[in-house]
Design brief:
- The structure is a single chain.
- The mean pLDDT is 94.
- This protein has 409 residues and is of the alpha/beta class.
- The protein is built from 17 helices and eleven strands.
- It is globular.
- It has two domains: 208 residues, EreA-like (biosynthetic domain) (EreA/ChaN-like  fold); 86 residues, no CATH class.
- The strands form two sheets. Strands 1, 2, 3, 4, 5, 6, 7, 8 and 11 form a nine-stranded mixed sheet that branches.
- A hairpin with an 8-residue loop joins strand 6 and strand 7.
- The two termini are 35 Å apart.
- One of its GO terms (molecular function) is hydrolase activity.
Amino acid sequence: MASTTDELAPPVHQWIREHAHPLATTDPTTALDDLEPLRTMVGDAEIVGLAEATRAGHEVASLGHRVFRFLATEMGFRTLAIQDDAAVVHQLDHYVSTGQGDPHQLVAALWRPRRTREMLDLVHWTRSFNQRFPADPMRMVGLDPASARPSDYDDVAALVTRTAPRVGTRLRQRYDVIVTAHELAEHVQQARGVHPGRPFAELAREAHEMVDSLPHSDTKSRALEQAQRIVDFHAGGFAADFDYAALRHQSVATMNRLRRETGTRIVYWEGIALTANAARFEPLAVLEEPFRTVGSQLRTELGTGYFPVLLGFGHGTLGDVHQGQRVPAPERGSFDAALAAAGLGRYLLDLRTAPAGPVGDWLHSRRGLRVISGVYDAAADPDHYTIGALGEWFDAVVHVDTITPTTLL
């Protein structure tokens, strides 16, 4: 943690109380008048980053949904970009564009923290928006490459078993272990002490070798293709050789291509470690080396055309993806503590209006900012703060004091 001194607290708390715009509700179905100050803040920005401090808080998700609706209905934003499987999100995009498909099943195929009632509500609203404005629709884009899905494991095992039953049995023994990563990521299994032992990438490669050992046939070719996707899924995960720089470059390239080709304005809705304008983000778990964020590259390339917003909170209860843990009040001296101490419940704050002096010093000091990623232990809450400068990482804050759990589908 950074320094816990609170000598700057009184002027900071006063500034927040005097400049924050109270938000009437977290309910995205209500009027959006209280978000009107966001219009001036965002201005002509081409990409707005919505940076969730957690993906397991209902009020964080709902406030993000309200901001998304405002940007869509009032400011002409027409693309929602998320770090998820491009093939799955393409199917969601087809649904919100045409109404074809089962939105519940499609949301259930996303990355597990997004398989929530809150995400489904967002998808339903986006579909209704497109029905009202068919000539100017909202699109959805997945920024991650298409990857293995649970059905691939069954497909490969079935194809192999028909050709070589004994090989199919050995292959399924490995797949039955590693397919669990689609419900509980391998690095989370490791953190919770439930990992079975051998790296999943090793088991996936062994299964691929089994397929490759079979006589050549059209069946083998199909099975090899799917088996390779399974290898890539596990070898590129947080528990193996995750490449953040590759993700950053690909994500920025995709969003820039969309801007150039269509002129669309984009809502980039992701976690803090992706959206913050952080040239050097100190990881909390899993990744060992500091890295540059997607948001930092967007700021470098777009300047004020990229507008990052922190969706933060004070305390509360997380959804089942984090086993319903209760998050305590923020650590003294952290940015979270000052944002919560304003005592306003819910508010919107433009960080760029901070005056020189104590408030400006506070915004640009290096302090703790809580990040609840895939791995979280409430008993070790102080370990879940990264260190950075709030005023450099974000242009605005949407804050809610208390959260309740999201609802998994």
